[in-house]
Each structure stands twice: as C-alpha cells, then as structure tokens.
Design brief:
By secondary structure, the chain is mostly helical. Helices cover about 60% and strands about 5% of the residues. Strands 2-1-3-5-4 form a five-stranded mixed beta sheet, with helices on one face.
C-alpha cells in the first residue's frame, strides 16, 4: 500500500522557489532558449524595421566602416561596440542588415549571460527573470542598436554569476575564466562601468571569509587589465595621457560630482532616449510605476532567499547592481534610460524570485490562485505600458531617420558630394548619410578650427548647418544659404554652402 503523500509546508514551498524543482521541464535549456528566441523575434518585429542610426551609433559605426569617413571619437567613449559590429560594417553599409545581426546577437547574449546562473537559480525562475528584463521597453529598444550599455548588462550578469560559482566551488576553473571575461568585456564596452562592476565583487572576495581566494582577485584584475588596455593606450596616443582623458571625459559628461538624478531617470523612462537637460513633469506616471516598485520587489526577493538560506545568491547581484547604478544616480546631472540597463539585468533576479515566492508561498490554494491571477494581470498591464512606450520611441527614431535622409538628399542635390564636410547641429548623422566628414569647431566634439573649415572650403564642398534664423559663423557669411527640411519636425533648418558646392 502506497504511503499517503504529505503536502509540502509553506516554508518548503518557498524554499523550492529558490532551490528549484525536478521534472522534465526543470532543465534550463528550453526555458532560457525560449526567452532568448522570443526576445530576438520581438526585436525583429517591433524595433528593427525602418529604424535608422542614432547620433552615438553613427559615431561607433563610422570607426569600422569603410563606406563613410570616420566621425570624431570623444574621450568618454570605448571601442568595444565598434569591434562587435565590425564583421558586418566592413561588408555592407545596410542598416537593416546591421540591425538584424545585433538582434540575433543580443538574443544569444541574453541566453549566455543567463546560462551561467543555471546552477544558482531554478530554470523557471531564471527564465522569468530574463523575461522581465527583456520585456522592458529600453531593453528591446537597445537590443538591435549599436550602443554598449546592453552588452555591459550581459557582462555584469556573466561576471557576477561566475563569481558566485567560483566562490562556491574552488575547482570550477571555467567560472574563473568567465569572471575574467565578463569584467574584460565590460571594460571594452564602457571603461568606467567595469570599475563599478568589479568593485563589489572584489570587496566580497576580500571581506567574506569563505570567499577569500587569491584566484578570484586575480581573475578580476586580469580581466580589468585586459579590457582596459586599449582605452588606456589610446589615452596616451590621442588624448595626452590617462589623467587628461579622464578629465576630458568628466568634462564632456557635465562634470562628475554630487548630482541626485533619480527624478531624471524616472522621467527618461517615459521614452526619452536622452534627458539632457531633464526638466518638465511626468506625463505618463503609470509607465514608470515599475521603477518605484523595483526596490520593494528586490527586498522581497532577498527575504525569500534568506528564508531559503541562499541569501548570497541574490545579495551579490543586488549589491553589484547598486554599485553599477551609483555613478548614474548620484554623480551625473542628466539621464538616459540605457545607463541603468546593467542594474536592471541584475535586479531582475531578486525581483523574479520575489514574485514567484509571493504566489507559491501561500498556504491556501484559493489564495494562491488569486495571487497568481493578480500577478498575471499586473504583468499584462506592465507589458502593455512597456509596448506603448517602445512604440513611441521607435516611431520617433524612424521619423528622425526619414528627416535625416531628406536633408542628406537635398544637400546632395545642392552639390554637397564626397569628399565633403558637414558641420553644425546634427552634423554627425547627416554627414554620414551624405558620405561626408563631420567636423565641429567647438563643443564636446571639437576637432577643427574655424580657420580649418574655411581652408577646407577652398578644396571641397562644406555645409554649415544652423537652426532657424541663426547667423552663419564669420567664415561662412556670404555663402549660399539653402533652406532644408525640418529636423524631426521641430526646427527650421538651413545650410550655408561653400562656393565649391555646385549643383
């Protein structure tokens, strides 16, 4: 006679949320692969069609594209994302092909960065965490873009997961290699982010008694040195030394200091890809409600992990996320939603644990069903709002692409053809589309003097772009003025063309 099956207690239910279950669907491959494939498909459907290159993207692509002159590369930037897209840009100038390549690659990156956590978090919970992160409008929007922040997020997931594995198992050499690779990849993408990623991991390796392993610190140092080497060498070759480059980078970013930017980031999540200056009031508060719930849900995940005696598994990524968010929330006076992608990626783990724990930890089945329904309804509402914000951001990007294309086409008709130079507001994107060099006589991207532009005008077409009725600089006064299509429907646009620009 079979013994009666005893229903698990509420504590056992909560523990299973953290430690996992067994069964045919318990393996991580189908769960994580499904999330990664869905992430890629959604990008291909919702984001990729018709989207042009942004201003920063144009700078990164031009570094490795033989199809257009190289744009000025300012001090804060790192070349990792340019290296990542080089296999495509050297072969074609098609933005559509580049977008598809990055959509597929970002799906693979999501899978790989979650895969290293498969021994730490149950597969369904891990997949749910990946889905929460991938479902944010900012994640979908930047998945196929030539921007480094999502790749730093993947590097942070990889490094943190490998750190925990290596700390728990001294024989796991692959985890040490993954830790070093994650820090190196983050440094290659964004030099400063690698520091904030490595800082809490190094502190854990020093202050947690059971984790005091020289190998962990060696992996962090070697990864940081390998990833930062290119940026440091370039600092001495092009910027007058490491200190000079760091000073210039801080200046371009508005001066690193004590700046509380929490409100700026909340406003940016309404769909602003750059909030600088960041003023005004929230127009759609419901769209950013999840951001204010994030600390509470994270705390709930930590409580669930503590009750299951697995606190370290979620505390380390939580502290690492906080570290990565510090410079953007406390030290920079403007915001862009992509800045916090690494923090969102890491916090998706405790948030997922919290949500699952709240549902499965209830004693009463009726209450459990009601809780599951409430969570499902909240997720539907959340994802609907994320889609609405994403749609608006994508439409604005497409409109800007069309406007830039019209302006480049008119400049071509007016005689601005390669080799040529474009200067003024939005010169980077317009010059790239027109096949010209973009040069600025001042500002963050200053790379030439006004005398240099005047000299260039004697040998090639030069277009000086201005908004509205703003006067042309002294060297361009007397040049032929041409009205251009409005840029993004916001401002009248005009070009002053050098005599060498002939129809």
């Amino acid at each position: 006679m079979q013994p009666a099956r005893v229903a698990p207690t509420a504590r056992q239910q909560r523990t299973r949320t953290i430690r996992g279950r067994t069964g045919p669907l318990a393996g991580p491959l189908p769960w994580l692969a499904g999330v990664a494939v869905l992430f890629t498909v959604l990008q291909l459907i919702l984001v990729v069609p018709g989207e042009g290159l942004g201003w920063d993207e144009t700078v990164y692509v031009s570094q490795v594209s033989p199809h257009a002159p190289t744009a000025f590369f300012s001090a804060p930037r790192a070349r990792g994302i340019s290296f990542l897209v080089a296999p495509v840009t050297v072969l074609t100038d098609s933005t559509a092909v580049l977008r598809v390549y990055l959509a597929v690659l970002s799906g693979a990156g999501l899978f790989l960065s979650l895969w290293v956590w498969r021994r730490l978090v149950p597969a369904p919970v891990l997949a749910f965490a990946g889905a929460l992160f991938a479902g944010l409008w900012v994640t979908l929007f930047y998945g196929p873009q030539v921007m480094p922040n999502l790749w730093v997020a993947y590097a942070a997931l990889l490094a943190t997961g490998c750190f925990l594995r290596a700390a728990a198992d001294r024989t796991d050499r692959r985890a040490l290699l993954g830790l070093a690779a994650g820090v190196a990849f983050a440094a290659l993408m964004r030099f400063s982010d690698a520091f904030w990623l490595a800082l809490p991991l190094a502190a854990a390796a020093v202050f947690v008694r059971d984790w005091r392993r020289p190998a962990l610190l060696v992996a962090l140092v070697l990864g940081g040195v390998a990833g930062c080497a290119e940026w440091v060498v370039e600092a001495y070759v092009r910027y007058g030394g490491l200190a000079a480059r760091l000073d210039r980078a801080s200046e371009i970013q508005g001066g690193m200091g004590w700046h509380l930017a929490f409100g700026h980031h909340a406003l940016a999540l309404e769909g602003r890809t750059l909030c600088r200056p960041c003023d005004g009031e929230a127009k759609h508060p419901a769209a950013v409600a999840w951001w204010f719930l994030l600390p509470l849900l994270t705390a709930g995940g930590l409580v669930a992990a503590a009750r299951a005696r697995r606190l370290a598994t979620l505390l380390v990524p939580t502290l690492t996320a906080a570290s990565l968010a510090v410079p953007y929330l406390l030290m920079v006076d403007y915001a862009a939603p992509r800045f916090l992608l690494p923090a969102y990626a890491l916090l998706s783990l405790p948030v997922a644990v919290c949500v699952v724990w709240l549902v499965t930890g209830l004693r009463n089945r009726v209450l459990m069903t009601l809780a599951a329904a409430a969570v499902a309804l909240a997720l539907v509402g959340h994802l609907s709002l994320q889609y609405a914000v994403l749609h608006g951001a994508v439409e604005r990007s497409r409109a800007m692409r069309e406007a830039v294309g019209r302006i480049a086409a008119q400049l071509h008709r007016e005689g601005v053809r390669p080799p040529c130079v474009v200067t003024g507001p939005e010169a980077v994107r317009i010059a790239y589309r027109a096949g010209c060099s973009s040069r600025q006589a001042g500002g963050h991207d200053g790379s030439i003097t006004q005398a240099g532009l005047a000299a260039a005008a004697r040998t090639r077409p030069v277009a000086v772009l201005v908004f509205g009725d703003k006067a042309a600089p002294p060297y361009a006064r007397g040049w032929r003025a041409v009205d251009l299509p409005r840029l993004g429907g916001l401002h009248p646009y005009r070009a002053h063309l050098s005599p060498s620009a002939t129809r």
